[in-house]
Write a structure and sequence with these properties.
The structure is a single chain. The chain is α/β, with parallel strands linked by helices. The chain is 19% helix and 30% strand. The protein has helices at 55-66, 75-80, 120-131, 142-150, and strands spanning 4-11, 15-17, 43-44, 52-53, 68-72, 95-98, 113-116, 135-138, 156-162, 170-171, 181-190, 195-204. The strands form three sheets. It has an eight-stranded mixed sheet with strand order 7-6-5-8-1-9-12-11, with helices on both faces. A two-stranded antiparallel sheet has the order 2-10. The longest helix has 12 residues, at 55-66.
Length: 205
């Protein structure tokens, strides 16, 4: 049985994007530093040679997507990337997007997109069905991530922690509700420019 994994890059002070994100700067002002680890080496990912990583970072990246059968992404992320031109960087994996206003036109490419309007539980359930025994990755969009956490849909959190203080922007863990969430450490992998932290959600109280 696959897991639902929140997989995202984050600054040391909790931001996943800088302020004023738009189509020209999808990660906001200064936010591109959060993804520099994806391009800081010479080792291409086997899933897309667009990503040039260090050996350690490539191992983490490719291991994660090697077990991924579906992706959940936010509608705002879809809009900011212009639907990735029809092809999400992880090619061929279906992407499920929660929205109450599905776009009339979707760019054609290698990625099948499904827009779901009846709640985050339905989004994740459809993604799990598509993934079969593989994992579902929740990526891109603080609001979608927060909805999944609040609905108790996330099994693990994989944070790519970048040693920078952005100071302002979009926080990952705002608006997740009053409950405390206890997590167990699964793995810590240190690279020169990022620390990969994997936690398993064990209980809320």
């Amino acid at each position: 049985m696959g897991k639902v994994i929140l997989d995202i890059s984050m600054s040391l002070d909790g931001f996943i994007a800088g302020p004023n994100d738009n189509r020209k700067q999808g990660l906001g002002e200064g936010g591109e530093i959060l993804h520099e680890w994806l391009f800081s080496g010479e080792r291409p990912s086997k899933f897309n040679d667009f990503f040039k990583l260090s050996e350690i970072n490539r191992e983490v990246f490719d291991k994660s997507f090697g077990t991924t059968g579906a992706i959940v992404a936010g509608r705002r992320t879809f809009d900011l990337t212009c639907g990735w031109g029809g092809s999400h960087p992880i090619h061929g994996i279906p992407v499920f997007i929660p929205t109450h206003d599905a776009p009339e036109e979707v760019p054609e490419g290698a990625t099948p997109f499904t827009f779901v309007s009846d709640g985050i539980e339905s989004v994740v359930e459809q993604a799990k069905t598509a993934a079969e025994d593989n994992d579902v990755q929740v990526m891109g969009g603080a609001n979608t991530a927060q909805q999944c956490i609040k609905a108790n849909l996330v099994d693990e959190i994989l944070i790519h922690l970048v040693p920078v203080l952005l100071g302002k922007g979009i926080r990952l863990f705002d608006s997740i509700g009053p409950e405390k969430i206890h997590m167990e450490k699964v793995d810590v992998t240190e690279a020169s420019d990022v620390t990969h932290l994997r936690y398993r959600i064990s209980k809320k109280y």
